[in-house]
Every structure is written in C-alpha cells, then in structure tokens.
Amino acid sequence: MYLRFLAAAFVAALTITASAQTAPIRPEITGISHLAVYASDPAVTDHYYREVIGAAREPDPENPLGVRYAFNDRQFIEVLPLPPGADINRLDHTAYSTENAEGMRKYLAAHAWKTPAKVEEGADGSRWFTVLDPESNKVEFVQPPSQPKAIDAPNVIGRHIIHFGFLVHSRAVEDTFYRDLLGFRPYWFGGMVEGKLDWVSQQTPNGHDWVEYMLVSGPPSQGIPAGMTQHQLGVLDHFSIGVVSVDAAFKTLSAGSRLTGVHDAHTQLGKDGKGQFNLYDPDGVRVELMNFHATQKPCCSPFTADDPAE
Questions:
Q1: DSSP the chain
Q2: Taking CA atoms, which of 49, 164, 206, 226 is between 20 and 30 Å from 158?
Q3: Is residue 70 part of a domain?
Q4: The pTM is what?
Q5: Per residue in 270-301, pLDDT tens?
Q6: Is residue 194 in some structural domain?
Q7: Is residue 201 a part of any domain in this protein?
C-alpha cells in the first residue's frame, strides 16, 4: 500500500511539473506603442500633429480610415474618424509594444482573460490584438515590424512618448490586470493635495515607459462620470512626450509660431518635480511635454524605478 501511495504521489508531481512547464510565459512588454484618439475635424487635427507637434504623417496599417503621426520608428499617435453619435470620449485605445503578440495572446488566454481567436497583421508586418482591461478600456498589444521604417520628422518637439494616462475609477481593480497579470512595476504616485491620491504611475515590465491611472471617484462600471466635460476628460486621457528641457521646448514652439489652439500660458513644475507644459489637440486630448528627469524632490512618494531616457 505504501509503495502504491509513493507511486501515485510521484505521478501527481510529474503531472504538476509538466503542466507548469507547458504554461505560456508572458512575453516582454517593452514600452508604449501608441495612443489612438478620435478627430472630429481630420484636417485641423492633421495640422496640429504635423505642424505644432512636428510628428510625421504615415498611413495606418491597422485601419485604412486612420492616420498615424509618428515620433520614432515604433511610437505614434493613431488618429481615427469620430464615430457617428459619439459622446465626449476621444480615446479609442492604448497600446503597448511586445516582442511576441501571439505569445501574449496565448498568455492572457491561459489566464482566463477574454482574447480574440487570432492576432491581426498589418501591411507593415506589425502584429496586434485587442482586449479589454477590468474597467472596459480597450488595450492593444503590438509586435512591431522586424524592420521598421525610418521616420522623417525633423521638427518633432520630442521623439519619445514616455507615458499615457486615462480615467480610472478603481486602482485595485485595474491592478488585477496591469500589476498582477502583466507585471507592471510601481514608479510614482501623488495628488494635488496632501492625503488625496490622484495619479498612480506604473512602468511597463521590461522598459521605463509608464501608464498613469488618472483616478476619479465612482464605481468601475460607471464609465465617464455624469457632468464631466470634454475638456475635463481630455485632461485625464492624455499622453506625454519626453524632452530634456521643457523650457527649451517651449521656446522652440513659441519662436516658431507653432503654439496655436489651447495650451498653458507657461511651463510649470509638476508635483513629481519634473518640468511640464500642457497643450491640447483640437478635440481636447492633452499633450504633456515633460522633462525626462526631476529637477526637484517629488511630492507624495519617491520614484521607485529608473526614468525613461531619449
């Protein structure tokens, strides 16, 4: 009987070990790929991203109705037509770069996350798929093409999208996806007043770009809070371009008569101790120029990981 017990235990141990060995391993998530936004007037938005921001206009391999405005050969803003009957929302999806889109799809599926049956493939050789995070925000995972096209953007105000942020109701609920399942790492958190948490920044697992929860009150199922204006939502749903000096970037924009539309009157120091300057695209999405490194001690919490670099 004892020998039979040992044999059964041995078989069970082998089964568990084999199962662990065959479970998909999460592919690397190396940074931000892009942010996709809607435009109510594509011509005005085109002028903004090409002439003000200085990004390179490119065709959109994911959507023939869209346009890409590229900052480098792997990062861009995707601009899509505003859907009929749209409300104040101008954010379609966020997107992260991964070394293996199909591997990421299998990893999420193995952890009971709802995924599409296959990845998509673009004309440029990129591969991607889309899922929903716990608060139903669309998230893409993009495998860049093996030989990305060089980008001609001599006047771009910065070449690295270092973070994006979006409206979040529950840090704990979102963490089940970004932290627990995907392995995002704490970077910094803070708020406008002492004791109130407004922003939570978490870096990609295998890079230094980060996602920023823009916290608002209410249950995760609420969506956009009643009474929120398009401008207020655009402050939350934003992306950030890293620069060595926000003051120098502001001077470049001012000297070149590129500061049109809505923008701050001057640069400022953020609560994280980094210089910043806010502009808004024609539909109110905030574009935040931000120093790569802090020049003063941040409020609320220390940085717990290295900063992105150009």
A1: -HHHHHHHHHHHHHHHHHHHHHSPPPPPEEEEEEEEEEESSHHHHHHIIIIIS-PEEEE-SS-TT-EEEESSSS-EEEEEEPPTT--S--EEEEEEEES-HHHHHHHHHHTT----SS-EE-TTS-EEEEEE-TT--EEEEEE--SSPPP---TT-S-SEEEEEEEEES-HHHHHHHHTTTT--EEEEEE-SSTT---EEEEE-TTSS-EEEEEE-SS-GGG-SPTT--HHHHHHHSEEEEEES-HHHHHHHHHHTT---SSB-SS-EE-TTS-EEEEEE-TT--EEEEEESS-SSPPSSS---SPPP--
A2: 206
A3: yes
A4: 0.91
A5: 999 999 999 999 999 999 999 999 999 999 99
A6: yes
A7: yes
